[in-house]
Amino acid sequence: MAALQIQGLKKAFGGLPAINGVSLEVAEGERRLIIGPNGAGKTTLFNLVTGDLPADAGSISLLGKDISRLATHRRAHRGLARTFQIITLFPKDTLEHNIVLSLLGMSPARWDGFSAFSTDLYRSAREILQRVNLEGLATRPLSDVSYGEKRRVEIAMALAQKPKVLLLDEPLAGLSREERATVKALIAAIPRDVTVVMIEHDMDTALDMAERITVLHYGSVIVEGTRAEVVADPKTREVYLGY
Amino acid sequence: MLFLLAAGFSLIFGLMRIANLTHGALYMLGAYIGVSVLKAVPNLWLAALLSGAVVAAFGFFLERFILRKLGGNVLGQVLVTLGVAFIIADLCLIVWGGDPIPIPTPAWLQQPLQIAGLAFPAYRIAVVVVAVFAAIGLFVLVEKTRVGAMIRAGVDDMDMARAVGIPVSRLFTIVFCLGAALAGAGGVIGGPIMSAYPGLDADMLPLALIVVILGGVGSLFGAFVGSFITGFVYTFGVALLPDLAYVILFLPMILVIAFRPRGLFGKFAA
Amino acid sequence: MRKSWVLATAMFLCLPLVAGEYYVNLACQIFIFAVFAASINLLLGYGGLATLGHSAYLGLSAYLSALAALKLGLGHALAALAALAGTTLAAAAFGLIALRATGLGFLMLTLALSQVLWGTAYRWVSVTDGDNGLRGLSRPFQMDDAFSFYYFSLAVTVFSLWMMARYVGSPLGAALKGTRDQPRRMAALGYDVWLIRWITFVYAGFWGAVSGLLFVYYHKYIHPISLSLAYSAEGLLAVIAGGSGTLAGPLVGAAIVMLLKNYVSAYIERWNMLLGFVFVLIVVFMPEGVVPGVKRIWLRFRSRG
Fold this sequence. Notes:
Helix content of chain B: over 70%
Number of helices of chain B: 12
Strand order of the largest sheet of chain C: 1-2
Oligomer: heterotrimer
Largest sheet of chain C: 2 strands, antiparallel
Number of domains of chain C: 1
Helix content of chain C: over 70%
Radius of gyration of chain B: 18 Å
Radius of gyration of chain C: 19 Å
Largest sheet of chain B: 2 strands, antiparallel
Structural class of chain C: mainly alpha
CATH topology of chain C: ABC transporter involved in vitamin B12 uptake, BtuC
Shape of chain B: globular
Number of strands of chain C: 2
Strand content of chain B: under 5%
Structural class of chain B: mainly alpha
Distance between the termini of chain C: 19 Å
Shape of chain C: globular
Strand order of the largest sheet of chain B: 1-2
CATH class of chain C: Mainly Alpha
Order of helices and strands of chain B: HHHHEEHHHHHHHH
Distance between the termini of chain B: 23 Å
Strand content of chain C: under 5%
């Protein structure tokens, strides 16, 4: 059973087709990279998978179950998590509070309108921060922390949701060389029971993170295969020429 | 009559994303100014134009000096327009007193018109005619002229319009003044039907809201359709169930919103 | 911060001992308004949803209670129950409609909906007696003297504010704040943003209804003007003047607005105009409100010393 299966997905914005009949299948535990030049539709594809955008046609299945008509938060509960291209966390809250929000999202306690927060949540949040080496900054507001650290918090939050499929939207964007190495290591350390699908823009950095690669161009899949196959394929080079 | 009020509101809301809560007050102000103007110039239509101009000038000051400062602070804009509405309302009370002041119907329209064997009040027909002309005029302005094209561009994508060199700020001021003028003129034209009284603004504002929400934001055609539907429903409602006429008034809007959050012809959800 | 609450409550407990009936009555009005403003703040400050139709809940609850007592002859307990239940139901229904939109659309819908009630109160003369309002109402437990009613309303106010504070500090409150700041992210994290907002809307409507009960008990009279836009706007002003997004803000704001209203209207007839001016001034010059401003100055003062 595929972790994520997309069939015939289509989305147009006022007559302009952004996604033109995309079909792809990601196996469980796989590390898939989706690349393509600007405007190829990568983030739109993610938004369709998460439910932020309604599709015009096609279907999306998560672990064999159709989620095409589910609302975004329901898809999260089915095991889908994502990060955003532009970091949109909660700047005025502390790091640990950010993680707590992530943990709370999956827990029925989020409907409690009366009691104070349980200390367990904060303890779990600290453990998670420890795993990404950010425990020291737990009580600092997010706005105080560097961009690379924010990115790590964001990935930690997504992992805190205990997802089955994790979508990473350009996780390395805007990072310095050291920060990039740290984040890459973090991604590489994600356990195999989580399927990871990444969008990246910069081919050189991302290529060694993935097992299979899908190349998107003008909303359609033009090449798909292992790293070696994609690099060798003339269509890939065509797309990236003059770039 | 409702159309003039609603069109201005829709324009301002659609282009500038400002819910101009002063709109009802501007309508009332127009009506009152019309009363004073009529004492000097006994022609209703001329008074409407002059009133419209005065109210537009008022709108100019409001937009330029206060609303401009609050660009982006949506809540702030709403509160300011609300505050100004209160100020205008009380000012009118001070200047023109608390009694309702009737505005006389032009003499040549006082007789009912006979059409197909039914008698219609001639003035109301005249108002409809004016509304149709105004609608056509606005339509031409927005769809056919360069200014209109710029306005439409601004509504569709403000940043892009700026990038292309369209003077968005000046456009805003023009639109605001135009909207205010429509409201002010509308106040005078509606005068013979409604007269000028304190509280007119509070009565008119929700109607403008209903029409715009019902017809859809940013769509003049929607405002046109919306005002007709609302006017229709109101007249029938008042006849059938006078006590609950107000509830009936809101019913079409509520129904439409429940099924189509962007209104009948809206460009985007309110 | 906790200490200041205890201090304030203690102060208010002692007030009738040192002040006369006029001040005690004034304090009652502030309490009622504070509960009203705090309920608006749940939506505005913590939910990021500006509402201009909250007077609907205060007014509806007041009217329902009055009608239940006058037309159905119900006792105070039952009438209060009917008022609270009816108003909460209305809030649920209104919320379904208003939350079809966000931002300005939401604002306009809340305004439109409260105007329905306002207009109906004026025109449905057979039920509401229109512009005359409903009079001849009584207070529960026959608390006709200022002092016993004062303690009653103080108790209700403290309870209401405490409940609202607990809501804000709870996981649901944190979720609400999250939806205010990053609704897309919250959805991705598994939160049902619409449902969180709707629950808050109903809850805010409930506490608005509570303030309505206090209102009708205090005044022993209800008039359509309590359902007006002006009243919603005063509530909004109180929240903004005091500082939205804080617990104390609406209270301070309510006190300011009430005091202003009481003292100024002795000298200036046109209260509405003054209200308008104050709106404009505050929005332009002091957008964050009084409480955050004072907090800021206090912190700066502390760090110097």
